[in-house]
Amino acid sequence: MLTTLIVCLANCGAPTTPADEIGKVAASYLEACHEMNYLQRSRCPDIQPPVLLQCVNDIERELPHQYRADFRKGRRVLEQRFITELPAQAESRFALQLRTAGGDSALACYNSANELAQRRIQLMRQLKIFSNSP
């Protein structure tokens, strides 16, 4: 799972084990939380991003016990990657939302926040399913 968190965050091939799948979903969930926080700081001061520690706690609560230590170790590496890679990614997605919203920044912020919130819900559902699978 740690390998998945570190190596496979961005457009990795198909996960090879259930642990890889859990790692990929957990990493994507954390990424969505960080992206929403980035948008609030950089473009959308009126959106309410999730508290990052709460996102971490939400993930850990759903992870099978045997993967929690790996997640804690991988999280540090992921958060360093988010510092360098996430801004460009978030800006690119926001630019697309801005074009879709006809240049209306407030609408683009709303749409971005809504999309990220929906993504987090979907990823948490997947995490729960994978974590409860035998």
Q: How many beta-strand elements? A: 0
The sequence of SSEs as H and E is: HHHHH
Number of helices: 5
What low-confidence regions span 5 or more consecutive residues with pLDDT below 50? Answer: none
The overall pLDDT average reads 89
Question: What's the end-to-end separation, in Å?
Answer: 16 Å
Query: What profile does the largest beta sheet have?
Result: none
What level of helicity do the residues show?
Answer: over 70%
Shape: elongated
Give a brief rundown of this model.
With 134 residues, the chain is mainly alpha-helical. It is built from 5 helices and no strands. The model has no long low-confidence stretch (mean pLDDT 89).
Report on this structure.
By secondary structure, the chain is an all-alpha fold. Helices cover 77% and strands 0% of the residues. The chain is built from five helices and no strands. The longest helix is centred in the middle third of the chain and has 33 residues.
What's the topology here?
Blueprint lengths: L1 H6 L10 H25 L9 H11 L5 H33 L4 H28 L2
Helix pairs in contact: 2-3, 2-4, 2-5, 4-5
